Amino acid sequence: MGPLVEYRDLALTIGDVPILRGVSFDVAAGEAVGLVGESGSGKSMTLRALARLLPDNASTTGEALFDGTDALALSRGRLRSHRRGLGMVFQDPRAAINPMHPVESFLVERARDTGSDLGAARTSAVTMLRRMGIHDPERRMAQYPFELSGGLLQRVMIASVLMERPRLLLADEPTTALDVTTQSDVLALAGDLRREAGTAMLLVTHDLDLAGAVCDRIVVMYGGQVLETASATDIASRPVHPYTRGLLASRPPLTRRLDTIPVVPGTPVSASATGPGCPFASRCPVAVERCATELPEERLIAGSRVRCHRAEEVVAGVLDAELPLREEEVR
Amino acid sequence: MSEPCTPTDDVVVEVEHLVKCYGTGPVVVDDVSFQVRRGRTTALVGESGAGKSTIGAILSGLASATSGRAVVCGEDRSVAARSARDRSRRGRQLQLVPQDPYTTLDPTQRVGAALLEAAALRGVPRDQRPARVAELLDLVGLGEAHADLVPRSLSGGQRQRVAIARALATRPEVLVLDEAVSALDVSVQAQVLNVLNRLQRDLGTAYLFVTHDLGVVRQIAHDVVVLRAGQVVEAGTVDAVLGDPQHEYTQLLLASTPRPGWVPVAR
Question: Which of A69, A197, A269, A271 has a CA between 20 and 30 Å from the CA of residue B220?
């Protein structure tokens, strides 16, 4: 059996603007993969391509396969049933829930559409809301979306998606707008439900620590390309790509004040602003001449799939003096 | 020169028993007291609805207090400024840097013009203003080429530096930074935090830093005030509050903050 999700050299252009330049990775059944990057990295568009939630003027090459089917090659009619196998959660739940109907109507929508038992759907919704940390589910279901806080509404959204037991959950910054205590709660509860149902997850986030906590594997994106893919533990303890090292080092540590936080100079670039070489070359502290002209092949080095001409030297530690180092120990 | 607080006075902001209610609604700031010392940073931390931005707004003159005192450089700001001269003096003593500089920078005005204007408000003589603009850009790590750009041509981090430069143009005693680095990419956020720390060492500006991010607090603040639902639950030095939190809410905030090796836990 092949992987549940497979990106094969996906390139995406919106109008004349390149967004993705050849993205390849996969997600196994039941696996949680974190898609991590800064603004303009293309992480959200990569996720959306799997459901073909793209602007009208988008054009693509390559494939975005879910369960062996390429979403980008489907007819409109087939696309609809293709999307049904996917659960989707975005940053703002208010954009996805009809404000004119009570929460209950949203939760039993699927049962109503398919003609299933409404009473059973309602019971299952109550159970799911309770498991997502909502203490008075019956009362909440009678309320309208505007009566619920953002945190409560996102719990409702995740419950509604996971109660269908989809094979894949697409989550784009699902907890970014929530307070940290709510975020911790939602991630823990949703993680339990997801693992029980055997649902795989593709999680888009800017927070590498958060991704490491809830995902099995991490894909680091920059400038419309994948620069490094490795297990969550490897990314945290022995990152290979200089960009991954920079991302880890520039996060302000909680335990100790630094004189200066180690930084990657400059600002993140999008795919439209990168040359033929490594997209990170212009900011990379260890870039050499060929980095700007020649895109490194993806290679398997020390457990990481990484695109970097100097990966062996990084792994050998000979560039440590020039690379940003994270101050905080991994415990 | 700026208009200094009493030279011997180490406290530039003194908030005492501050209370804010909107109409007959809930109390959003409930008997809050804390200080900001000269050249130091006090962080106001807490989750949404904690009242931290409201306190910044009262100190900036954007909101009035219901009761209590909000003293900046010896002057109580819980009452509105009476004259243009009062407002102007208050502006020179304290400046606000908001989360999104798009909301305060004129989208049609070039960076250089915005800084010239701020220098003029400060009373810098006309012939010295261009030099002052160059100095301000240099302070926040931008070049003179940036002076010719409008805000939309800048990246988020550059825009935030312009907002900081403009706030510094009046050589204020205090900057109120309201989630000023929260919307930035992590690699850019680190750069801006480094700039802020360097500026404080060089200029001695005091910061009131409103944030929900405890990692940021550790890197920038000397003192912390933890707020929940308008009330102070714990306050002290950064080492004490983050290193050995006494209140269970502070402990919960710390436990919920992602870091290496972190695992989310349901309450």
Answer: A269
Counting beta carbons within 10 angstroms of the beta carbon of residue B81, is it exposed (0 to 12), middle (13 to 18) or buried (19 or more)?
A: middle
Lowest mean pLDDT across A93-102, A264-273, B65-74, B190-199: A264-273
* 135-194 in chain B: CB under 8 A from chain A: 155-158, 185-191, 193-194
Helix (H) or strand (E) run with residue A194 in it: helix A180-197
CB A210 within 8 A of CB B215: no
Identify from B185, B201, B209, B233 which residue to disrupt to test chain A contact, counting A C-beta atoms within 10 A and taking the largest count: B185
pLDDT of residue B267: 81
Query: Count of domains in chain B?
Result: 1
Structure tokens at B194: 């480094």
The answer to the question of residue B231 being in a domain is yes
Of B156, B253, B260, the CB nearest to A209: B260
- Report domain extents, chain A: 93-165, 235-330
In a domain, B85, yes or no: yes
Q: Which residues partner with B42 through β-bridges?
A: B208, B223
Q: Which residues pair with A26 in a beta bridge?
A: A6
A residues 97-116 closer than 8 Å to B (CB): none
Which domain CATH number covers B249? 3.40.50.300
**Minimal CA–CA distance to A297: which of A282, A312, A286, A308?**
A308
Domain assignment of residue B79, yes or no: yes
Q: Is the Cβ pair B219, A262 closer than 8 Å?
A: no
Q: What are phi and psi of A61, to 5 degrees?
A: -130, 165
Q: Where are the alpha helices (DSSP H) in B20-124?
A: 52-60, 84-93, 111-122
The answer to the question of residue B245 being in a domain is yes
What is the domain range of residue B30? 11-100+174-255
